[in-house]
């Protein structure tokens, strides 16, 4: 029983898990529809029922009805900001049970009516035209609410009551242009939020008595503060003083301030003794000159002050007062950026500054000159200033015994090699000198313990081999320079990250991989690689590294030269080892030639290749010649295929080899002694035989030449037959005839022998078949007038 039950139980659990997983999966399948800025006047009708996020911001929608969104039952996020909606009945969302994020900011809403069945996490009604706070009692049941954006021109404490029990992470309150006519200073006290952001009317002088010290707020942000006369600012200053009542407040942010220098310093002064730890001010417009001299730094909790983007109408008054106030601040972090500050004084006593960020100002090399009071400073950023001489920066940091990070990027720094002093502070670990006009010489003076060195976008052409040893250097960025090769790691024995893309490296040496064993990441793409033999080693090495080591591989690594390979990724560039290795090439060619010569020799020696070649050649010639003769004419007059002439010494061969081999294939032969016509002389018989035969075969041997040739020479010459007969002549060389043994007056024979227009009788039996075939091919022809005459002559 229990066993059965537990297995059933397990089954149910698995089922539940499966269903849960399915639900999670379907939750993840987002369906986003973005119709922002498309000139809509209504919510589009043809939307997918699966839509989970709908963005119709920046259109001309003026109305929202239940039917517009009724069918979108999966809708979770709806953004209708920057439209023209004037009235909202929240009950239109009662069927969108999943809806949790609604942005209706920047519309023209004046009134809303509420409905209890909606539960948002994010509801933004800011930048609308509400008079009173748009909070209805139904909001009190939105237990999930994390963000609430409101706007109003009048604040009433009672309107906040419905949401006083909710813990809302962030409330944005935008006060309309007419705010302030009738104020209730206590109206915000019931807000229950970690973070409150109040946007005051843009055009109005700050004349408000609102108490912003909301007791639950950790973070307070105030936008649009304007008080351009010193006495006007008393309202704002007393509002700041009240913040002291709020013990939880840690962060204060002020945006868009327009005031005087005196009031600005007064603002700093009133925040100084509060509980605030992070004070951030941005977009400040300052007028007038600073008269104040003293600043009371005591009782502060501040850890970080940052000031961004300050413009000052007048800057032609002595500013040393301003610099003095800042340089003597007793806090850890100070950021002043995007101002026209041209200088900063050395603190008058040992300073607690740990991190200073003075980026994007107009500071010169004179900043912190001979300053011995910044001995605790760890990071200093002077990015984007007017620094010119690196030697002055080196000299400046020499006194900063704790400095670990220095950023002097985006200046106009150069370094002259003849500078005598190289006194970088020994503590420096990270140095950013990118985007300056430094050259190779910078390598002659670098902080000895530096781990991270950024020199990208300078004018470095070569990393000298004899640079000071930087044993601690782990990360080197020399991208966007004019380097022609990868550096070796002889002097950077710990290098693990090298960034060297966008240089002029055309054929990087593969030595890099031997000397830089600790490399974990190399980024060398976008260089003009020359895809030639020299690059093979590099490609091989880099291709073998794990892909996470080679940043941008393979896409960023392309051939730039030769033209035919331009744009080819290095990974696809292959050359055979042969074409790259001259020694190997020569050896290979040598071997091929030797093998060829060897086989030719073997063929000639053992298989008599030349003989075969001559046979084939003659066969081809015969075929060619027979084709040119008017066959029918021949066929009608001829009775024999061939006439054979030979010396008596060779008659054994003729009778036992030649005749049987020809006659067995139905070839008719005329022999003058066999086909002898009585009553005619031998010569006449021979001539008649020649005339009736298609071809004349002469069996040549030294005997024949000595004894017989002269007859024929004579006969032919006499009967002017040679010319015709020559065409029909087949010479069989039975035995080699040395050239000298041919009498010198036998011109024709000499020519024939020299032209090698004869068939050689091969000694090897294996070649006889081809010999006969060739010979038969030469004399084969279809004879018409066989019948009687042949019979008659034969009988
Ligand atoms: C809000 O926070 C307070 C204190 O942190 C807590 O006592 C209270 O229960 C919270 N209320 C809700 C609705 O979460
Ligand atoms: C306060 O400011 C610090 C530094 O800007 C930030 O890290 C922190 O999240 C802020 N706290 C609140 C609650 O906004
Ligand atoms: C500086 O401010 C503290 C606290 O606000 C105060 O106690 C002290 O008297 C002030 N010192 C001077 C010289 O005003
Ligand atoms: C100060 O600045 C440094 C560097 O920007 C930062 O790491 C640190 O968190 C800051 N400290 C405070 C207290 O804001
Ligand atoms: C150096 O500064 C530049 C900006 O000037 C920045 O992009 C880069 O990341 C910095 N380098 C390091 C190593 O932080």
Overview of this structure, please?
Belongs to the Toll-like receptor family. Disulfide bonds join 422-445. This protein has 795 residues and is an alpha/beta fold. Among the domains are: 1-204, Ribonuclease Inhibitor (Leucine-rich repeat, LRR (right-handed beta-alpha superhelix), Alpha-Beta Horseshoe); 206-317; 635-794, Rossmann fold. The chain contains 21 helices and 30 strands. The protein has a 21-stranded parallel β-sheet. Helix 4 (234-242) runs parallel beside helix 5 (261-271) and helix 12 runs parallel beside helix 20 (768-779). The radius of gyration is 54 Å and the shape is elongated.
Structural descriptors:
795 residues; elongated; Toll_tir_struct_dom_sf; Rossmann fold; 21 helices; binds 2-acetamido-2-deoxy-beta-D-glucopyranose; 21-stranded parallel β-sheet; 30 strands; five-stranded parallel β-sheet; inflammatory response; Leu-rich_rpt; disordered C terminus; Leucine-rich repeat, LRR (right-handed beta-alpha superhelix); single chain; alpha/beta
What's the SSE blueprint?
Blueprint: H1 2-28, E1 32-34, E2 53-55, H2 66-69, E3 77-79, E4 87-89, E5 101-103, E6 111-113, E7 122-124, E8 147-152, H3 157-160, E9 168-175, E10 193-199, E11 219-226, H4 234-242, E12 251-260, H5 261-271, E13 278-287, E14 304-312, H6 320-327, E15 333-337, E16 355-357, E17 379-381, H7 390-397, E18 405-407, E19 430-432, E20 452-454, E21 475-477, E22 497-499, H8 511-515, E23 521-523, E24 529-530, H9 535-544, E25 559-561, H10 577-580, H11 582-607, H12 609-628, H13 631-637, E26 640-645, H14 651-663, E27 669-670, H15 682-692, E28 693-700, H16 702-707, H17 709-719, H18 722-727, E29 729-733, H19 747-755, E30 758-760, H20 768-779, H21 787-794
Helix pairs in contact: 4-5, 12-20
One 2-acetamido-2-deoxy-beta-D-glucopyranose binds next to loops.
């Amino acid at each position: 029983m229990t066993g059965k039950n537990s297995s059933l139980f397990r089954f149910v659990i698995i089922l539940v898990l499966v269903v849960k997983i399915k639900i999670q999966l379907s939750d993840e399948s987002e369906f986003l529809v973005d119709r922002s800025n498309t000139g809509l006047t209504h919510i589009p009708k043809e939307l997918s029922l699966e839509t989970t996020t709908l963005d119709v911001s920046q259109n001309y929608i003026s109305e929202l009805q239940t039917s517009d969104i009724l069918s979108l039952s999966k809708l979770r996020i709806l953004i209708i900001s920057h439209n023209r909606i004037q009235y909202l009945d929240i009950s239109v969302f009662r069927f969108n049970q999943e809806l949790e994020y609604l942005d209706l900011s920047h519309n023209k809403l004046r009134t809303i009516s509420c409905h209890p069945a909606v539960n948002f996490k994010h509801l933004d009604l800011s930048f609308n035209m509400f008079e009173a706070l748009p909070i209805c009692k139904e909001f009190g049941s939105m237990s999930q609410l994390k963000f609430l954006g409101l706007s109003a021109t009048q604040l009433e404490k009672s309107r906040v009551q419905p949401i006083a029990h909710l813990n809302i992470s962030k409330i944005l309150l935008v006060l309309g242009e007419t705010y302030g006519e009738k104020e209730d200073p206590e109206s915000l006290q019931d807000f229950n939020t970690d973070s409150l952001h109040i946007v005051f009317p843009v055009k109005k002088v700050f004349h408000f008595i609102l108490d912003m010290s909301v007791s639950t707020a950790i973070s307070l942000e105030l936008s649009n503060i304007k008080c351009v006369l010193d006495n006007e600012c008393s309202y704002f200053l007393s509002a700041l003083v009240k913040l002291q009542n709020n013990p939880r407040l840690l962060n204060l942010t002020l945006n868009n301030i327009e005031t005087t220098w005196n009031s600005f310093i007064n603002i700093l002064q009133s925040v100084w003794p509060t509980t605030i730890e992070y004070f951030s001010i941005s977009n400040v417009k300052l007028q007038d000159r600073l008269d104040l001299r003293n600043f009371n730094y005591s009782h502060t909790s501040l850890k970080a002050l940052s000031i961004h983007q300050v413009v000052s109408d007048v800057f032609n008054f002595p500013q040393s007062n301003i610099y003095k106030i800042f340089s003597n601040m007793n806090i850890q972090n100070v950021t002043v950026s995007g101002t026209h500050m041209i200088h900063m004084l050395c603190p008058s006593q040992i300073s607690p500054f740990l991190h200073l960020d003075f980026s994007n100002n107009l500071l010169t090399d004179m900043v912190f000159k001979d300053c011995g009071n910044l001995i605790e400073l760890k990071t200093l950023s002077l990015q984007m200033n007017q620094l010119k001489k690196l030697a002055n920066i080196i000299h400046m940091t020499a006194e900063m015994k704790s400095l670990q990070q220095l950023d002097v990027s985006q200046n106009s720094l150069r370094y002259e090699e003849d500078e005598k002093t190289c006194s970088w502070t020994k503590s420096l670990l990270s140095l950013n000198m990118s985007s300056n006009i430094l050259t190779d010489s910078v390598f002659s003076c670098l902080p000895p313990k530096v781990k991270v060195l950024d020199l990208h976008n300078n004018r470095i052409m070569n990393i000298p081999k004899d640079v000071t040893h930087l044993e601690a250097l782990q990360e080197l960025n020399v991208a966007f320079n004019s380097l022609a090769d990868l550096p070796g790691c002889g002097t950077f024995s710990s290098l693990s990250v090298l960034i060297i893309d966008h240089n002029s490296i055309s054929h990087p040496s593969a030595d890099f991989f031997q000397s830089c064993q600790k490399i974990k990441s190399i980024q060398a793409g976008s260089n003009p690689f020359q895809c030639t033999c020299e690059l093979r080693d590099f490609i091989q090495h880099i291709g073998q590294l794990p892909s996470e080591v080679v940043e941008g591989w393979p896409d960023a690594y392309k051939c730039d030269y030769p033209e035919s390979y331009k744009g080819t990724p290095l990974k696809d560039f292959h050359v055979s080892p042969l074409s790259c290795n001259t020694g190997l090439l020569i050896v290979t060619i040598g071997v091929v030639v030797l093998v060829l010569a060897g086989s030719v020799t073997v063929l000639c020696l053992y298989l008599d290749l030349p003989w075969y070649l001559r046979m084939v050649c003659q066969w081809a010639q015969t075929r060619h010649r027979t084709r040119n003769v008017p066959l029918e004419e021949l066929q009608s007059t001829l009775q024999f295929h061939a006439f054979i002439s030979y010396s008596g010494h060779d008659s054994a061969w003729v009778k036992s080899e030649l005749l049987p081999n020809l006659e067995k294939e139905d070839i008719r032969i005329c022999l003058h002694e066999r086909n002898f016509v009585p009553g005619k002389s031998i010569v006449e018989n021979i001539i008649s035989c020649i005339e009736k035969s298609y071809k004349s075969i002469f069996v040549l041997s030294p005997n024949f030449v000595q004894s017989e040739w002269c007859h024929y020479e004579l006969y032919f010459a006499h009967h002017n037959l040679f010319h015709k007969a020559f065409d029909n002549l087949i010479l069989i060389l039975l035995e080699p005839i040395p050239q000298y043994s041919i009498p010198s007056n036998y011109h024709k024979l000499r020519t024939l022998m020299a032209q090698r227009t004869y068939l050689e009788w091969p000694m090897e039996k294996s070649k006889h078949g081809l010999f006969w075939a060739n010979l038969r091919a030469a004399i084969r022809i279809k004879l018409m007038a066989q019948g009687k005459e042949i019979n008659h002559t034969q009988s």
